[in-house]
Structure formats: structure tokens, C-alpha cells
Amino acid sequence: MRVMAQMGMVMNLDKCIGCHTCSVTCKQAWTNRSGVEYVWFNNVETRPGQGYPRTYQDQERWLGGWTLNRRGRLSLKAGGRLKKLFSIFANPKLPAIEDYYEPWTYDYDNLVQAPLGDHVPVARPKSLISGEDMQVRWSANWDDDLGGGPDLTRSDPTLKAMTEKANTQVRLEFEKTFMFYLPRICEHCLNPSCVASCPSGAMYKRAEDGIVLVDQDRCRGWRMCVTGCPYKKVYFNHRTGKAEKCTFCFPRVEVGLPTVCSETCVGRLRYIGVMLYDADRVAEAASTTDEHDLYEAQRRVFLDPNDPVVAREAERAGIPRDWIEAAQRSPLWALINTYRVALPLHPEYRTMPMVWYIPPLSPVVDVVRDAGVDGEDAGNLFGAIDALRIPIGYLAELFTAGDPAPVTTVLRRLAAMRSYMREVNLGRPTDESIAATVGMTGDEVQDMFRLLALAPYDERYVIPTAHTELGDPTALAHKLEETATECSLDYEGGPGMVGGGPFGEGSGGAAPIAVENFHMLKDRQTADTVADPSDRVQRVNLLNWDGKGRPEGLFPAPPAERPTAPQLMEGTDPDGEVEPRP
Amino acid sequence: MSPLSTVDVLLWLVFPYVCLVILVGGLVWRYRYDKFGWTTRSSQLYERRLLRWGSPLFHFGILVVLLGHVMGLLIPESWTTALGISDDAYHVVAVALGTVAGVCTLVGMAILIYRRRTVGPVFSATTKMDKVMYLVLGTVIVLGLANTAIANILGSDYDYRTGLSVWFRGIFYLQPDPALMAAAPIGFQLHAVAAFALFALWPFTRLVHAFTAPVGYLTRPYIVYRSRDAHMGSRAPRRGWERTGS
Ligand code: HEM
Ligand code: SF4
Ligand code: SF4
């Protein structure tokens, strides 16, 4: 047994309202730069729909992830090492910018600069790739809320796979279809095919928390990782020529803050926590022959943090005590293992993804309610779950490689919770048989409800902080140095880092992971006094002000208070210059 | 033999060493200063149809050409003779392989340059250094191919393996004989000068990617694990704060 810790996420899809707040805040934080205009570390897809980039789930076309070769061994679907090296000069399976979308801006200048004329001036769309005028024909969410209608939706690879397997024609007429949202980030897989595809070894999985990252100094732009990832969550920065991906907001997570997408999620549907797993069994589990067994195989790789043997092994493997405790309190463990309502996204890609989903019951509830019967009655819901082949089949295609059984089980649990809790809410005697039909007790159902519906911040996000002191005696000193003795903008190239060094855009030193110092940010956000503006680095300005009080230095000092002014006014300047200098 | 002129000494003695020093020093310097800029800067995201043809043609061509140069320049004639390879056989293979590879390289490069110029997004992502690089690289390739073509079509009694090659190896023994180059035909002279100029330019262009060809991929384990501590922060520790041990 080789115990490792993995940071992961669970999203409860019933609660996603498709507002895209997560995508926007993520973009603001990480990819609001040139070269990554088209990059969405977090995106929210309408299902059914084509996804982003278009049809990325069609692995017969994009060849992402792993497959079993003729001898039943795990191999990269796009080809092994030699094949990769021979096709490196022009990657045969790289999505082009059209498969994402051509990013654009508008010629706003024209609105104010256009000469007086008979026509109202317009702001034309301009491509951010070529700088030319362009027609906007597609973007990251062109088919949002089923926009574009059946013609677009029909190209959804999941629908196609379903149609082929079940031989059912999915009805796409507007009123008969179902819809839900699927927010996606990088899965920070246990068996990441992006890492395996990187020829220069620049991508790595962090041993402490399993976060998958690209070393920007080692990436050489071979762009094989983009092909390797079946979820298409590695993107190519076309200005710097380097791959970039979701970082699980590691600078935040390291100090115990949730990722930006979770923190800002309007539906509060994201859970972050630690899972312990047996690294020795990952490859074996990923090689499971029957795709339908992959979900269970991955579940068996996880280790029970409450098992004393596991805890001891974990400690032996150097996992800190507070991480083991965090694993015991992990909402992921509860949702994946205790209540068994979370499922992995596309386990058949064999990367052992670590962002799991609670499938939505809402398509079922909607049908029941539209039929004019009680949408909170267990019998009605169970009946509908059994009858509604299409949404169930679709969810199974997403979460269990097409096996409807686990999806049905999860939905029945959610349905049972729904009707059981109605009695509780109405103050009526509860019906224990409802809980019993899904193999739970009433108390368990109530606990699950608590976690799914009410859990406060610190139960949704159980994030142990990184141990900077481990094996690195100077790290702490370095941290102190960073907060106290130098300006966080004091690095090669200065703030912004746009423009680049002598070898074109993006050359020169790497921009720091975040200009904001997250330790400081956290201190400020958790302090109940106004942050102390003891020096210029910590000074609160309008950009980092959190609304608490009116700290000194928030606004520039009014002219009269400027200390230099009176001094100069006294005429002590030998040159006789009396003008106050700024 | 006439005594060497200053120009000869400068061209065949000083210039190569200056270029090699710039190459090595430049690579070391760039690797230390600008790892972040060390990339192919792939433009496949913008355009793939032309790249699908141009890039493999060019790269496979140039790699074979490179191999040919290693054979022709670095392996002395006496070695191949000792192996029982006759001069004629060597020549046939060299010319056949060289011509095919050279033509592939040239066609590939023509496609790549055409693509750089005509595809809007690729053109706007082209830096000044790219242009200079293509100019010099193109010159080297065209001159080299021209030499081969002239030698084959017109016939020539110049044997570079006893002239140019010996001089080239001499550079690495630190005793090059400039007279050998001074006696070489003008085509070879120009090719050699352009090639050394390319070496001097190399560290400052995107060509650096060739020096980090990912051969290690063949042997490393698929999944790379790295410890967080080994790579903390995005900036090197300042003097006095370096980590100990590890
Ligand atoms: C030996 C290993 C090499 C590998 C693996 C390699 C790989 C690559 C790759 C992946 C690209 C980017 C293509 C794209 O997507 O746009 C590229 C571009 C390029 N390479 Fe190489 N290369 C190698 C050697 C060389 C050598 C020896 C030269 C020249 C002497 C060279 C010259 C170029 C040039 C000029 C480009 C730019 C093509 C363009 O106009 O976009 N490469 N190389
Ligand atoms: S989802 Fe993330 S970790 Fe998994 S293969 Fe893709 S980029 Fe790699
Ligand atoms: S912020 Fe939350 S609710 Fe809104 S789209 Fe993102 S995941 Fe869904």
C-alpha cells in the first residue's frame, strides 16, 4: 500500500443554475491575458450539447485518454512514445482554434472617433487572433440553454453514443427534451494522460496533493498534452507557446482557501476535500477490462481514512496528521463512499478523474411535475426513474460509461431524500420505508440532506493547508521575506509582464503565479480589524480593499496634508524653487 | 601555395570560433535567463493544413541532412575505407540520400515560409527574429543544395572529404588549417560562412527547441510526480535564502 493524498472536488448538478459565475471569476483570476483569450479553465456546458471545445467527448475523433491495447495493457489512445515523437512536427489530433472559437473584441474606438454622419457608428467585431474584421459564428457557449436548437444539439457525442448503443432515437423537439448544466474544470486525474503525453516531462502531478500542473520553464510547446487530455482541459497559450491548465487554484488551496470557482459559485454546489488513495493500485484499476466496472474500480482505489491501518500507513508515507484528519472529515469521502451519490465524469477515459458529480434529479422531477402528478412523492419519482430511459441513459453515458444501474441507484437515493425530507419539513411523521428502499436509514438521509442542502462553508470546503516547513527549512523564511521585505511586484519585467522579453512575446522570466499574496489576502479576510497598513507592501488600496473600515492610505492624501508641501513652501530650497513637486 | 591573406585567417580561423563561442555562450545564457521563452512557439492552433505537410517534410529532411553532415564532416574518409566502403558506394549513397533529404527540406521550408507569409494569424505572430532566422537558414540550405546539385550535374573534382571536412574537424582539435578552406570552391566557402552565421544566431531564435529534443520521453515513466517543495514559488530564491541540501 502506498498512500497518497489527493485534492478533489464534487459538484452537485441539481443546484447548478448555469449562471457562468464560476467561469467568469476563474477567467478574471487566471486567464484574463492575451494568448489565452479562448481558454476557460472552468467552463459550464449545457447538456445535451457539444461541449467545449466542440465534440471533445468524441474520443474516436480526438483520441484523448487511455485505452486498452490488444494485450489488455493500458496505452495512450493517441499512440505510444515512438508514435508521439514521429508525429511531433505536426500533431495530427490537435483541435484548431475553430474547434474552440476565434476570440474577438469590438472596435469600441469607432464609437467615439467616427466622424459625424447620417448613420450611427457601430463597433465591429475584430479577431484577437488576426486583428481583422470578423463574423462571430461560434463561441464558448454558443449552444447555451440549447440555443441553436436541435441541429446543434444533434452533434453531441454523448447523444450519438447513446443512440448507437440503445438504438433509441432521442427526441430533440424543444418541449420534449431535457436539459441540465455541467460545470467542468480539470479533473486532476489519478492517472493523468496529459502528463503521460508530455514529451519533455514538464507536466507533473504534485506528490502532496495530486494537483496536476505544467512547469512553465520546462514546457517546450510540443503541444501533445492537449491531445492527451480527453477532457481537453490543457490549453495552448498561442502567444507564449506554452501549455496552460487549471491549477486547482493551488496558491489559494495551499493556504486553506477554496478555488475561485467554488468560492464564487452561486449555487454553492461545489465541495472540496482530500481523498486518500493507494497509488500502487491506480494502474491496475485503470486497466479494468469492462468499462462498466471502472467506476467501482476507482472507488476501490480510495482508502478509508477512518481505518487505523490506513491512517498508520498514511503517516508512514509522510502525510501530515492534519491531512489525515481532513481526509476523515472530507465531504468527498462522504459523497463518494458513505452516501454514494457522486459519480466520476467519463470513467471510460481511464484517467481516474477526481472531480466527481452528483447527477441531477431535475430532469426526472420536471417530467413528473409536467405530468401533473406530485413531484415529491417517492413512488412517482421511483416510477419515473425506471421509465425515463433517455435522461438516465444520457447521464449513464456521462458518468458510468453507459451503465444505467449506478445512475439509477443515485437518483433513487436523491428521490428518496426529496420525499423523506418533505415530511420532515412539513412536520409530519417520517416514512422510514422510503429510506429503507434505498438502503439507508432516516438519520443517514437527514445527514445526507444536511451535507447536500445546508452545509456551511467549512463543511463544504475541508482544505488542509500545505506544509511549507516540510523538508524545506528555508521555505518559511522565504515566505516571511516575501511578505515583509519586498514588494510583490518586484520581479523581472515588473507588473503585468505583457509585451515580453527580447525573443518575442512571453520570453523573459515567468510571471509570478499571483501578484496578490494569498497569505496576506487570507489574513485580511479573516481578521476582524482593519488591516494594518504598516508598510507600503501591505497598504490597502482600492484594488485590494475588502470593505472593512477606511484604512489609512486607501485614498491618496489630500494636498494640504502632504508632508512635503509645507517644507518646500518655507523656501528652504537653495534653488529658490517653491513649486511643490509631486 | 600562396600565403594566407588576412581575410582568409579571419574567415576560416577567427569567425568559426567566434560563432561557436556565441553559440555555446548564448545557449547557456538563454537557458539560464529565458527558460520561459524556450519553446517551439507552435503555430498549429492557427493553421494546420499547410503545417501538416510543411513541418514534417522540413523536419525529417533537415534531420537526415544533419545526419549526413555528421557522416560527411565528422567521420574521416579513412574510417569508411577501413570498413570496406568504397569511395564510389559512399558517394552514391551520400548523393542520393542528400538530394532526397535536401529537396524535402527545401520544399518543406518553402511551404512553411509561404504559410508564414500568407496565413494572417501566423504572419502576425512572426517576430523579427523569425524573419532573420528564416533568411539565414534559407541561405544555408539553398547554398548547400546548390553545391550538391552543381557537383552532380556539372561534375567537380573537389573532394570535400579531404578538404572542407578536415578543416572542420580541425576546429574541434583546436588546429584548423585555413588553407584548406581558402582552396575550396566559392560555393562551399559561402555555405560554410552562412552555416557558422546560423550557429551564432541559433541561441537567439526559436531554433533553440532543437537542443531540447525530447528523447528522454522514450525512457521516463509515463506519470511524473514532483514534490511541491522542490518547486516553490515562481522566482528563484534570492542570495542568502537558497535552500539547503535537497
Ligand atoms: C530534433 C528535434 C526537433 C523537433 C522535435 C522539432 C519540433 C518542432 C515543432 C514541434 C515545431 C512547431 C511546429 C508548429 O506546430 O508550428 C517546430 C518548428 C520549427 N522547427 Fe523544429 N524540431 C526539431 C529540430 C529542428 C531543427 C534541427 C531545425 C532547423 C535547423 C528546426 C527548425 C524549425 C523551424 C524553422 C520551425 C518553425 C516552423 C514554422 O514556420 O512554424 N527544427 N519544430
Ligand atoms: S483532466 Fe486534467 S489531469 Fe486529467 S488528463 Fe486532462 S488535464 Fe490532465
Ligand atoms: S457558479 Fe455555480 S451555479 Fe453558476 S454556473 Fe458555475 S457551478 Fe453553476
From TrEMBL, chain A:
Annotated stretches, region: Disordered: 544-582
Subcellular location: Cell envelope
UniProt KW keywords: 4Fe-4S, Electron transport, Iron, Iron-sulfur, Metal-binding, Repeat, Transport
Cofactor: [3Fe-4S] cluster; [4Fe-4S] cluster
Compositionally biased region (Acidic residues): 572-582
Protein name: Nitrate reductase subunit beta
InterPro entries: 4Fe4S_Fe-S-bd, Nitr_red_bet_C, Nitr_red_bet_C_sf, NO3_Rdtase_bsu
Membrane-crossing segments per the record: none
Top-level taxon of the source organism: Bacteria
One Pfam short name: Nitr_red_bet_C
Sequence ranges assigned to domain 4Fe-4S ferredoxin-type in this UniProt record: 7-35, 177-208, 210-239
